[in-house]
Amino acid sequence: xxxxxxxxxxxxxxxxxxxxxxxxEDIFRRPTLIRPLLGAIESGSADWDEVLAGYxxxxxxxxxxxxxEIAEYYPEAKVIHTVRDxxxxxxxxxxxxxxxxxxxxxxxxxxxxxxxxxLGTDLAPMVRLIQMTLESQALPxxxxxxxxxxVEVFRAHTDEVAATIPADRLLIFDxxxxxxxxxxxxxxxxxxxxxxxxxxxxxxxxxxxxAATPLLLRRTR
Length: 221
Prior knowledge:
Blueprint: H1 6-15, E1 21-22, H2 24-29, H3 34-43, H4 48-51, E2 57-58, H5 67-73, E3 79-82, H6 86-95, H7 97-102, H8 107-119, H9 123-130, H10 134-138, H11 147-164, E4 170-173, H12 179-186, H13 201-207
Parallel strand pairs: 1-2, 3-4
Helix pairs in contact: 3-9, 8-9
Pfam families: Sulfotransfer_4 (PF17784)
Organism: Actinoallomurus iriomotensis
InterPro entries: P-loop_NTPase, Sulfotransfer_4
């Protein structure tokens, strides 16, 4: 799920030599990824070596929506499932991802997406890709996001991952635990510097939505 430390995990994996690591933020910098990823995630069947070429790891959305297919495609790969306190997760989601995604449903947002669709620019497919996340699929509307329902979904997803991925391939990881469990799982030395802390709610709020603006005018293939 989003807001479980995936940006911090990306930084940690890259520090440990498992990079480049694909994260949603990379797609804004490399819009050529938008359409291949969108096609792969919508179909569920893809040559993941081709789609993910150049990356050694990937965390969070949008690839996490196809975690089963990707885990089967790479049967020797290790799987890290990030977790946090469910109530704190929901609070963070409400002030960040849920709020930002609802802007796409506003009148200006819908107008920009419609214009992008007509012009064939990157914004419309990017929005579709952004909306393809685990939490968006499980909690599609504000009516579905009651605390009881959201926490139930969050915990059920962890249970599903644990029941699906063999224990020797899986680390259920809270980034607050730091380097030790992650490095032990990956079989690498523990760095001397502190574990990276990235993209907390305050930092996310300051980031704005400007990164998506150029996609209204840009067209990549």
